[in-house]
Amino acid sequence: MPEIAFVNGEFMDLSDARVSVEDRGFQFGDGVYEVVRCYHGVPFALEEHLRRLERSASGIELGIPEETRRLGELAVEALRRSQIAEAVLYMQVTRGWAPRNHAFPEAAKPTVVITVRPAKPAPPDRAALGVSVITVPDERWLRCDIKSTDLLPNVMAKQKAVRAGAFEAVMIRDGAYVTEGASTNVFAVKDDAVYTAPEGPRILSGITRAIVLGLAREHGMPVVEEFFTPEFLARADEAFITSTTLEVVPCVRVDGRPMGDGRPGPLTHVLASAYSAEVTKRTA
Amino acid sequence: MPEIAFVNGEFMDLSDARVSVEDRGFQFGDGVYEVVRCYHGVPFALEEHLRRLERSASGIELGIPEETRRLGELAVEALRRSQIAEAVLYMQVTRGWAPRNHAFPEAAKPTVVITVRPAKPAPPDRAALGVSVITVPDERWLRCDIKSTDLLPNVMAKQKAVRAGAFEAVMIRDGAYVTEGASTNVFAVKDDAVYTAPEGPRILSGITRAIVLGLAREHGMPVVEEFFTPEFLARADEAFITSTTLEVVPCVRVDGRPMGDGRPGPLTHVLASAYSAEVTKRTA
Questions:
Q1: What is the ipTM of this complex?
Q2: If you ran DSSP here, which 8-state letter would residue B108 be given?
Q3: Do the Cβ atoms of A25 and B30 come within 8 Å?
Q4: Which residue intervals of chain B are DSSP H helices?
Q5: What is the DSSP letter of A121?
Q6: Which of A147, A158, A190, A281 is catalytic?
C-alpha cells in the first residue's frame, strides 16, 4: 500500500512529492484544500467536497484550472494507485509558483496536490467513553467559511487541547459564542433539540455537519442553527463534534467539568449510528 | 548573479529549491518568516530581523534549531554566493515535515529556507509623486504581531489595492481604527507630530517602523503611538507607509481623495531622507 501523491500532473510516491519553496501555498498560505475520507476504496461525499473546494477557491478568487475540474477523477485515480482501502484523501490547490510578491501573480499556474494516506482507526473506546474538550479564544481571521491552509490559529488551538489532555479545542469568538472546534464542528443537545453555529463567515460549512443535521431532521430532532454561549454548551444535555475523519464524536467534559451526566448521550448515539449507516449506504 | 536558496542544510539554485508537500509550512501555514533588504552586499538591520524571527517563533512555540541560530551566518553566506549586491533576503522557518495532523508533530525537525533575489528598484517618481492607498476591512487573525506565513488576508487586501489602481491597502479593524497596510506600517502626520498604531497583537512590529520612529524623535518630532481612525488618516497633513523593501513611501491619496495638499509632505521627505542616510551609515 504505497502512499501516493499527485503533484501538478504527475503521480508519484508521497515521499518524493515536492513543491517550490516559492509556491504561494508555502510562502503566503495562498490556497485552499479538502480532506475526503475513503471507505473500502470509495471516497465518501466526494462531490460535496469538490463543490466546497470550488467555493473556497472562488472566495479567494483562485481560478480553477482544467486540471481541478478533473480533480475528482484524479483523486479516484490516486486512491486506486495507493490500493489503500481505508484512506484519507487530501487535495490542495494553491495560486502556484511565482517570485514572492503579495498581489496575485499575473501568469502563475495553480499548484494541484493530492495525497493518499491510510486513515487512522479510531480508538475503540472513543465512541463509548466520549472525549474531553477545552474552550479557547477564537483568534482566527474573519472568513472561516473559506477552507484555506492559513491554519496556524487552528494548530495553536489544537495544541492547547493536547497539552490540557483534551481531544479538541472549542473556539469562542469575542468571549461570547461558540463557533467551532480547531478541526471540527461543535454541537449541543438541549431538550432533544440539536444546536450548532450557523453557516456564515465565522465557521466552516462542514460536510459532516450538513449530513448530521439532515439525519437529525430525518429523526425528528429540532435543529437550531444559531450561535450559543460557552455556558449553554457547558450546561447542555449532550454535546458532540463532527469532522470528515472523526465522523461523530461524543464530548463528555468541557474545561475539566462533566457535561450532562458525563457520558455520551442517547441522541449523540443515534446520530453517530445514523451517520455510519449513511456511510455504508453511500459507499456500498 | 544566480538566485540562491538554502533549504535544510544545503545551498542550491533557487529554481531547484523544494519542500515536501507535507511540510507544515505548505499544509498549515505553520511557520514564520523575515525579509531583509541588502544594500551593496550588506544585509540591513539583520540582527533586528533575526530577533523578531525568534520572537515570532516563540509566539507559535516553534523551537529554533541550532541551524536557525546560525541563520544570520547562513543568510550572509547565501547572499555572498548569489553575488547579488542589491538583494532581498527571505528567511522562513516552519515546523517541518510530518504526516498531516493539526497538533504539533512529536519528532519533526523545523524546515529552514533562505532565498536571495534581486531587489526591485523603486520607480524614480515614487518618492516625488507619492502613491495612492485604499482602505479595506482588517479581516486578519488576532495575532498580527507574529510574522507568520498565514498571509492570505494580506494577499487579498493587496490585490484589492492593485485592482483599484492603488499601491497599498490600509487595513481598518472593526470599522474603527487603522492598523497597518497589507505589507507595510502606516503613519499619519498632523500638526508636525507623527502618528502610528501602537505595538501589540493588532500590528506587526515593523523594523523600518521602529527605525523611522527613532529618526522622527531625533528630529524633534513628537511621536504618538496610538490607534487613529480612517477619518484622521484622510484629514492628516501628510501620510506615509514603511516596509523593509519599500523604505519610506509618501501617500497622497486615500480612497480616491487627495490627502493634505495631494503632494508628499515635508516631514515625510525629512524622514525618507534620514532613513536613506541611516541605511548608508549602517551598511557602509
A1: 0.97
A2: P
A3: no
A4: 24-27, 46-59, 66-69, 71-82, 126-129, 152-163, 207-218, 230-234, 266-283
A5: P
A6: A147
- A171 CA: distance to closest CA in chain B (Å): 13
Low-confidence stretches of chain B (pLDDT beneath 70): 1, 66-69
Helix (H) or strand (E) holding A72: helix A71-82
Q: Quick: pLDDT tens for A24-81.
A: 999 999 999 999 999 999 999 999 999 999 999 999 999 877 666 689 999 999 999 9
**Which residues lie closer than 8 Å to B249 by C-beta, 6 or more apart?**
B126, B127, B130, B131, B167, B168, B184, B240, B241, B242, B272
Nearest to A156 among B22, B60, B92 (CB): B60
Chain-centroid distance, C-alpha A192: 26
Could you tell me if B136 and B260 lie in one domain? yes
> Quick check: is A281 catalytic?
no
What's the domain range around B75? 4-118
Smallest CA–CA distance from B173 into chain A, residue: A142
- Give the nearest chain B residue to A8 (CA atoms): B21
Q: What is the per-residue pLDDT for B66?
A: 65
Q: What digits encode the pLDDT tens for the residues B272-283?
A: 999 999 999 999
pTM of the model: 0.97
CATH classification at residue B38:
3.30.470.10
Same domain for A213 and A110: no
Domain end among A58, A83, A118 = A118
